[in-house]
């Protein structure tokens, strides 16, 4: 299968649509990023637009490496073509990209000319560009090609003449997207059938109806080898075809993509910052929400396919485009137990599936009130419902008297109890003190770990303990700055759970 030729127009299509177009220094930053991305062609600007644009085009043409085509735009007239040739001639692989409209609407109302006249203008312009740039390439665009359905046979005849005049690339722009992709790509196929190997076919799509990516991808399979795209899809109105979307769609289809796709994510952030156009959170590939799962069904599927080469609810491996954030689960009123369990586990909170069942109603109620829950919300739920269990036992204090003796103070059904326990450590001493009062419990297993270990001053100890009373076993938890207090609180939380039957 042929390899796509990525021809980027961010510095021309994208820049001209900005509320504050980039200056020469800013153009160089974007240019350098495009070189790093590995695009094969860059349209560096529109030299006739202004003196600044001319100088920027000239500068970037000089800087373009020999592996990359440097192209400039020119209308189909001598003045534009002369400016273009003068600006781009310093490139190792220069190209003049000239254009004129051929659709019935544009011919009648904009140019006020017939197709034979416009065809001759295009032929003359291509010949003149070839004359001024004998060692370079010439690209010709049928502006508003998407509107040429009514006169397509005549346009194809015109293109054959333009190719014969010396055009190396024929570009077919969907300058304003009006129809479904298949209607446009069927037109591309007809041009490809007529021209075949006579010229490289190119496709350039705008996103007015939101289908530029689909049209470009299908255009590639319809014969267009050159794909004209922009970074972040910036461009006039709803923008142009987004490079990242096309590249990943082709990659997923098995096409070899000659770009450094692992730069896409950082490239997107760079362009967003420089253009002052935020990336929509739902934007394909690069949006902040693209890897987020909130539906319980989706969260469960994401969990069960995590780490596999293909995820149940993810279109691509985020590492492919340089994303390190990975799939994200958050909790809303639509979320399920799988998400809640995973969120706690990933934060280092040990929790059982039974405890998740217990927390779910509280989490759902809170989410219905607040919307998506932050981890602070979930932390509060964990502390309030699992680490502070209300009941008849109310812990007061625990203090060491000697190496093996500890004083324990608590109340039971509002009756204050002060006692002393003896043992090898605080846990054994507290259990022995309770046993002496007739509270027959035992500790089958317990462990501790520190929370917030990166913030040592704020670190807290979490105790997880399995308590038994007769044939009944429960998991008891507590969190405290003091490891001893955490241990003892866990015991009393466990006593309340055992007595409450939860």
- The CATH topology assignment of the largest domain is TIM Barrel
Radius of gyration: 34 Å
Quaternary arrangement of the chains shown?
single chain
The average pLDDT score comes to 94
Share in β-strands: 15-25%
The termini sit apart by: 63 Å
Structural class, from helix and strand content? alpha/beta
> How many discrete structural domains?
3
Q: Summarize the main sheet.
A: 8 strands, parallel, barrel
Number of helices: 17
CATH superfamily caption of the largest domain: Aldolase class I
| Gross CATH architecture of the largest domain | Alpha-Beta Barrel
Q: Strand arrangement, largest sheet?
A: 1-2-3-4-5-6-7-8
Number of strands: 16
The backbone outline, from C-alpha atoms, is elongated
User: Stretches where pLDDT falls below 50 for ≥5 residues?
Assistant: none
Helical content class? 40-55%
The first-level CATH class name of the largest domain = Alpha Beta
What does the secondary structure layout of this molecule look like, with pairings?
Elements: E1 5-8, H1 10-16, H2 24-37, E2 41-45, H3 51-63, E3 69-75, H4 78-88, E4 94-101, H5 104-111, H6 115-132, E5 137-143, H7 152-164, E6 169-174, H8 181-195, E7 200-205, H9 212-221, E8 226-229, H10 243-252, H11 264-275, E9 292-293, H12 296-304, E10 328-329, H13 337-346, H14 353-370, H15 375-385, E11 393-402, E12 405-412, E13 415-422, H16 426-436, E14 442-451, E15 460-469, E16 472-480, H17 483-500
Parallel strand pairs: 1-2, 1-8, 2-3, 3-4, 4-5, 5-6, 6-7, 7-8, 9-10
Antiparallel strand pairs: 11-12, 12-13, 14-15, 15-16
Helix pairs in contact: 2-3, 2-11, 3-4, 4-6, 6-7, 7-8, 8-9, 9-10, 12-13, 14-15, 16-17
């Amino acid at each position: 299968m042929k390899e796509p030729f990525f021809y980027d127009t961010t510095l021309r299509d994208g820049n001209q649509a900005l509320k504050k177009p980039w200056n020469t220094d800013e153009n160089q930053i974007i240019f350098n990023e495009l070189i790093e991305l590995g695009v094969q062609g860059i349209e560096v600007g529109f030299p006739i637009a202004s003196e600044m644009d001319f100088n920027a085009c000239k500068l970037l043409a000089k800087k373009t490496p020999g592996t990359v085509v440097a192209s400039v735009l020119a209308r189909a007239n001598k003045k534009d073509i002369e400016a273009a040739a003068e600006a781009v001639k310093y490139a190792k692989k220069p190209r003049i990209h000239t254009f004129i409209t051929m659709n019935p609407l544009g011919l009648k109302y904009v140019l006020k000319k017939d197709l034979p006249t416009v065809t001759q203008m295009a032929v003359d312009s291509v010949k003149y560009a070839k004359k001024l740039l004998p060692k370079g390439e010439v690209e010709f665009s049928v502006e508003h090609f998407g509107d040429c359905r009514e006169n397509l046979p005549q346009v194809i005849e015109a293109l054959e003449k333009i190719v014969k005049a010396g055009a190396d690339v024929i570009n077919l722009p969907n300058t304003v997207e009006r129809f479904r992709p298949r209607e446009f790509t069927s037109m591309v196929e007809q041009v490809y059938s007529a021209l075949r190997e006579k010229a490289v076919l190119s496709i350039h799509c705008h996103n007015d109806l939101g289908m530029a990516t689909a049209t470009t991808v299908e255009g590639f399979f319809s014969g267009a080898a050159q794909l004209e795209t922009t970074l972040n899809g910036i461009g006039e109105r709803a923008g142009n075809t987004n490079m990242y979307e096309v590249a990943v769609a082709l990659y997923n289809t098995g096409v070899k993509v000659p770009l450094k796709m692992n730069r896409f994510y950082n490239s997107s952030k760079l362009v967003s910052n420089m253009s002052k156009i935020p990336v929509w959170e739902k934007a394909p590939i690069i949006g902040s929400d693209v890897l987020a799962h909130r539906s319980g069904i989706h969260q469960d599927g994401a969990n069960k396919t995590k780490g596999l080469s293909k995820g149940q609810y993810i279109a691509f491996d985020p590492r492919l485009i340089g994303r390190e954030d990975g799939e994200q689960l958050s909790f809303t009123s639509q979320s399920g137990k799988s998400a809640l369990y995973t969120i706690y586990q990933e934060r280092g909170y040990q929790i059982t599936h039974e405890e998740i069942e217990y927390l779910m109603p509280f989490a759902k109620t809170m989410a219905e009130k607040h919307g998506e829950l932050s981890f602070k919300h979930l932390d509060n739920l964990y502390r309030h419902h699992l680490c502070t269990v209300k009941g008849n036992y109310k812990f007061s204090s625990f203090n060491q008297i000697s190496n093996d003796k500890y004083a324990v103070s608590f109340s039971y059904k509002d009756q204050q109890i002060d006692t002393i326990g003896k043992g090898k450590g605080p846990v054994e001493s507290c259990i022995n003190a309770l046993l002496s009062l007739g509270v027959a419990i035992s500790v089958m297993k317990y462990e501790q770990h520190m929370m917030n270990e990166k913030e040592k001053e704020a670190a807290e100890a979490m105790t997880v303990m399995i308590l038994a009373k007769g044939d009944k076993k429960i998991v008891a938890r507590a969190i405290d700055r003091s490891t001893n207090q955490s241990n003892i609180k866990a015991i009393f939380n466990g006593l309340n759970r055992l007595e409450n039957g939860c």
